Amino acid sequence: MNGAEFDLDQELAQRDDATAAGRLKGMLRNNKVAAFSVLVIALIIAASFAAPLYSPYDPNKPSLSERFAPPSRTHWLGCDDLGRDQLVRLIYGARISIVIGLLPTSLSMLLGAALGMISGYVGGKTDFWIMRLADVVLAFPSLLLAMVVSYTLGGGIVSIFIALSAVSWAGTARVIRAQTMSLKEKEFVLAARSIGVRGGVIIFRHILPNCVPSLIVLFTLNIPGAIMNESSLSFLGVGASPPSTSWGLMIYRYKTYLLSYPWLAIAPGMAILIFVLAFNFLGDGVRDALDPYMKD
Amino acid sequence: MLRRIAVFFVAVMLALPICAFVEEFAEAAIAPGYENVLRFATNDEPNTNDPQKTTEYYAVNFQVFDRLVEAVTTGQGQSDLVPGLAESWEISPDGLTYTFHLRKGVKFHNGAEFKAKDVKYTFERMLLPETEAKNQDFIDPIKGAAEMMDGSAKELSGLEIVDDYTIKVTLKEPFGPFLASLATPGVAILNKESTEEAGTDFGLVPEKTIGTGAYIFDKWVLHDEFKVRRNDNYWRGAPELDGISWKVVMDADTMRMMFEAGEIDVFDTDLVPSQISYFTKSEKYADKLVVGNRMGTYYFTFNHDIKPFGDVRVRKAFQMAVDRKGMLDALFDGRGELVHGILPPGLYGYNKALPEIPYDPAKAKALLAEAGYPDGFEMTLTQIADNPSTLARGELFQAMMAEIGVKVTIDQMDEAAWYAVRADGKLPAYSGVWSADFNDPDNFLYTFFAPGNTVRRSFNFKNDALSNRVAAARAIVDPASRVKEYQDLERAIIQDEAAWIPLFTTQHIFVVGDRVEGFKVSWNGWSDGWHYYEGLRIKK
Amino acid sequence: MLQIRNLKTHFFTRGGVAAAVDDVSIRIPPRSIVGVVGESGCGKSVTALSVLQLVSRPGKIVSGSILLDGEELIGKPSKQMRRIRGNKISMIFQEPMTSLNPVYTVGRQVAETMILHRGASKAEAMDRTVEMFRAVGIPAPEKRLKSFPHQLSGGLRQRVMIAMAMACKPSLMIADEPTTALDVTIEAQILHLMKELERDMGTSIMMITHNMGVVAELCDYVYVMYAGKVMEHAGIFDLFDHTKHPYTQGLLNSIPKPSGVRGRLFNIEGMVPSLLRLPKGCRFSPRCEQAVRECFESEPGLYAVSPGHGVRCFLYRDCGDGGEAI
Amino acid sequence: MARYILRRFLISIPVLVGVALILFLLLNVVPGDPVTLMMGEHIKPALIEAFRARMHLDDPVLVRFGRYMLGALRGDFGVSYKLQREVSGLIWQAFPHTVKLTIYSAFVSWIIGIPAGIFSAVKHNTLIDRSLMGFSLMGVSLPIFWAGLLMQYVFASRLGWLPVTGYYSIKYYIMPSVVLGWSSAGTVARLTRSNLLEIMKNDFIRTARAKGLSEPSVVACHALKNAMLPVITVMALQVAGLLGGAVMTESVFGIPGIGRIAVDAITHRDMPLLQGTILFTTAIVIAGNLAADIMYAFLDPRIRVEQANS
């Protein structure tokens, strides 16, 4: 028995929400903004992937007679410079923005988590070199690095994947490394090591599960960055292979009509704003709920 | 103590912007000194203003230098060759020897008098390998040019100084458009002494970039602005304007806002073709459009080395599958004219009688089937990334090809890779526009279809007989038979061989602000032009 | 001097309402040291924080009365309440490291109280701080003024906390487990210091602890709390010599005996119940060895076994009601 | 202290060399030949050879890297392919504009971020908290070039209050700084908020309250200073983010800074210039981190004293 002061909150937290999932559920109950964000994100994702089921127009087929048609009952957000329905293109474009938000983030998480755990667990020279590499990557202004990488690899969506993964693994690696190092000293890990369990097994059995909450937090917080970077990379005109498109590319392409046909440029910008804002709110909520380790 | 310093540092950082704000806010909106300056904008920084070392940035060169012969704009898409620094010239009957009588009393900006040695210096500098000049094409028909370029000669044997004001130029073989090519901005005349002295600073440092032109190179702030000022001692008479400035604005959409906010005087719609319909349809700008015909042709290419483009039936099918009128309407608001060959209307030697290539997707499909592709095939169209107007053209092409069953993938490459692959003859297909450097069919046919050039432009045109005729046509002296030969070649290459898909020529539209009066588009419809002509002035 | 009457402080949580302090009455006479003992979670700290009205959300004082020299503190406007905190009632905490702000010197933190409540100038306050440091036995006080908390040992830090608490000569000092985090020798010194201060300055002390040894050494009067309720209260000699409540007996048994008979340090079976799921009947019944059927069914009142000695246990029902220590 | 600074400084050298090496490899394994692009289309093969020889483009990559680093040590970063001038000169010319933009933007981000963070921490989980955080996060969620264009449209083109582009005086910097500053205000607000929340849970806050301090004084005197220490670090780290954002902002608002020439260099494959700008920017970022650490050490007595003792 110790003399800790009465802390009911903690007591409750431990009893009701012992698991990460439980705490996330609690967050959705208490944090209305985060809950609403989840709804928005889910709606956007569902709408975009179900698009072929209900879309009245082909997103890629030009219709020269309807060029720059203003918003109307048949075309809610009007038509673009080649007469394609803007709303339909926006919905289809969401897919690429979503994939770009999720895929490189997942890749970089995997890479960062793996390197971070190896670095933290093995220590020594391995740790030194991995962390110096992380320093190097973190020192680059990430957007410029992504631009260089995607320019090096040539346009196209795959190079954007690689570019975005290459710039964002380092932050993850640092956090996971720090956690691994503290977990490594925990009794259950020491016990496992003392009976000769192999390093790889320890990492997968004992360390990885304990890093999951941090990974979830990092994941939600990294997605908006990836989507924003994609839109910035589109500034160079690289990205999805035409005629398919992404939100970033739509802004890039239609910004030129901002003065004459403003809806063309405003709609994809708003879409990014809403989607990314939702992810930011969700990320904050998730971090408030799960974050035992990270401060910033 | 150290802590205090840190605190102080933070405080200063916070205070700095506030001070700056107070200090700088009360400042005039329009820069003083620009009251009588014509203000342009460009979206690309020149690499240099050395006329011999650039192939694309002539905005300053036109104003600062003069040429032996000048091409002046006489009407929309029309030009005349008039005497420049050469007062007069004689051409020998065999077309091999040109004798130029130079103008006397012309002064360079540094006060030195223009003499024959300057012409000799200019030509030899262009040809010497160590100069790394890029415009050698325009003078390489001169005898001895090849020897200079490969380093075996230090002097140009085909150029002879008769006296200070007379030079004699001998060609290797007759070259019809020689005079016209001397009028291109790349062959501007430099001053021997000052250019030698400037060394690598020539073209970069304004005060060391000396010419005889109507304006003096005044300043160049990188990524911001470059400017020329009036040459009061200009031999044709000082211009009316105090100067001309070019603002470097990377984002063309920003440029348009600057124009509307009155920060620039002339808006070049070529930089933002998407804005054409806005300006042409707006009543506000109806009387502010200055329109010139472009001496240029838009086209799609295909690489004859790549299956199935070796088959003329496929190429013809493609020619018929493109709705060129629709494309012109959609992308350029219909402001232009369809082209059925190579040469744009208005160019010397343009053939009005060329039969029209019809838009006929059904027949195109039939032709494809005949060639063995009833279900179409897949192909790649390349373009340089970050070019929305080319992309729009490509996407329309993509959709039109889909109609005849051909699936087009658009591959956006970066500029360097694109040029490198094209020079290797390996680009599968692309679209582009070619505008005349000088007013002659040679500038078009030789560029694309001469042996070697068809590879460098990724055509790989297989009809060697025609290619060789393109090269041989250069030496024809008689104007009438020259024109006939070029027209025959054009018909054979495009209408029979279907070597490319000609699209259209477009108008070049400038929107000119309230202050400006008398602005003219240069004869070839370029963005850069020689802004020394009657009537150009700024309203007071 | 301080009278807590029927104080109820509840925590309104998602899981339900937790009565952390449930009908507690405590009296602290002038110039005395009163102990409040119990396991963690018994509500002793919340009682202390309630006195200063520093219970934070989701906790809330529901009812009761807290009189300081006859003046009601509950419901006092926060501005007036602030004049009492640190001035008339001060408080020191368990962990002297984290209770001091790491980015300010200790001198400044002590002086702050005097500047705030006594309107002293900075120089005056600093002089007084030196005096206070001397009074609480900090060596080289002038030098220590400029030290940061992390530069001091735990014992010194607690002395600083005490100096801060005593700076305005309050009539009551609440000490919440002040020695738990310290070594035994340091603990003895600090306890000695507190006793001295009580004697010299006449400040009453409300001593919150789980340690019966500390109580034996320091206190005049003791309240034993369990799960939000006072289980037994008595004068120090009554409590040790005539221990009545089974829980108190358990607590006392947990003190290591000098005789060398080593039993388990704490021999009460089971855990403190969750405040959200209190057992029916007596709260202690599930752990009580002497519990009878009745104990599981209804709650005992506070019975007076002798004047000034109350016990909440059916074993002493016969002694009659009125065990409130008022 | 001096030793600490020196050690931190020495660690950053290999990082910088690593950055240079990665960049060099990245830029030199690229398909496509910048020479074709630089020299134009009618160029004779002999000239290309000459150019390649002059630029040593045919040596092995590592030899070129070594040569480059030796040059860089002397401050010679080569000559820009496109602009044909010394890269170092071009960078120095551009740098002041970027510094200005960065300082102004940082200022904006603090003005928005710090108060927003403080108020939303104090009013934790209320509507005020959510809307302040929402406002700050909105900046993070706006694509910079889109927001920039919208602002140009509204404030310059429609209202005529501000100039569209330029960098000649403070009013030219208003829009770019707001766009860029707002975009990083969210980070500052987040950090301020979470730090403050964390700090407010500390025991010494309870001590301060028990002393009788009012809630605003508790926050201002006791919590804020502790909470701001990490924020100061972030301010310096922000430099990296702002420099990245400056790429977009400078391009849209016509500020001839580092970001702008970097984009120019990317699109023109101007390797010496690109390499120089990125290396320089990275050096600034590293210097920023170093400054952050040192500043942190000065401001936090715990670290300061430890360093002094060691």
Describe the 3D structure.
The complex is a heterotetramer of chains A (296), B (540), C (326) and D (310). By secondary structure, chain A is mainly α. Chain A has one domain (3-51, 78-290): MetI-like fold. Helices cover 72% and strands 0% of the residues of chain A. Mean pLDDT of chain A is 81; it is low at 1-17. Chain B folds into two domains: 1-265 and 513-540, Periplasmic binding protein-like II (D-Maltodextrin-Binding Protein, domain 2, 3-Layer(aba) Sandwich), CATH 3.40.190.10; 296-505, Dipeptide-binding Protein, Domain 3 (Dipeptide-binding Protein, domain 3), CATH 3.10.105.10. Chain B has helices at 2-25, 59-64, 116-127, 145-149, 178-182, 192-198, 252-260, 276-281, 312-321, 324-332, 361-370, 388-403, 415-423, 442-449, 453-456, 464-472, 479-496; strands at 37-42, 69-75, 78-83, 86-91, 97-102, 159-163, 166-170, 215-221, 225-230, 243-248, 266-268, 289-293, 296-302, 336-338, 378-384, 407-413, 429-435, 500-502, 504-512, 516-517, 537-538. A four-stranded mixed beta sheet of chain B has the order 1-10-9-8. A four-stranded antiparallel beta sheet of chain B has the order 4-5-7-6, covered by helices on one side. In chain B, strands 11, 12, 14 and 19 form a four-stranded antiparallel beta sheet that branches. In chain B, a hairpin with a 2-residue loop joins strand 2 and strand 3. Residues 23-29 of chain B have low confidence and may be disordered. Chain C has helices at residues 44-51, 78-84, 96-99, 106-118, 122-135, 141-145, 154-166, 184-201, 212-218, 236-241, 246-253, and strands spanning 2-13, 16-28, 33-37, 59-68, 71-72, 89-92, 172-176, 204-209, 221-226, 229-235, 303-306, 309-311. Chain C has an eight-stranded mixed beta sheet with strand order 6-7-8-3-9-10-12-11, sandwiched between helices. Chain C has a four-stranded antiparallel beta sheet with strand order 2-1-4-5. In chain C, strand 9 and strand 10 (229-235) form a beta hairpin. Chain D has helices at residues 2-28, 34-39, 45-54, 61-73, 87-122, 127-141, 144-158, 170-200, 203-210, 215-253, 258-267, 271-299, 301-309. Chain D starts with a helix and ends with a helix. Chain D is mainly alpha-helical and 310 residues long. Chain D has two domains: 32-74, no CATH class; 89-309, MetI-like (MetI-like fold). In chain D, 80% of the residues lie in helices and 0% in strands. The chains are: A mainly alpha (296), B alpha+beta (540), C alpha/beta (326), D mainly alpha (310). Chains A and D meet through helix 6, helix 7, helix 10 and helix 12 of A and helix 1, helix 6, helix 7, helix 8 and helix 10 of D.
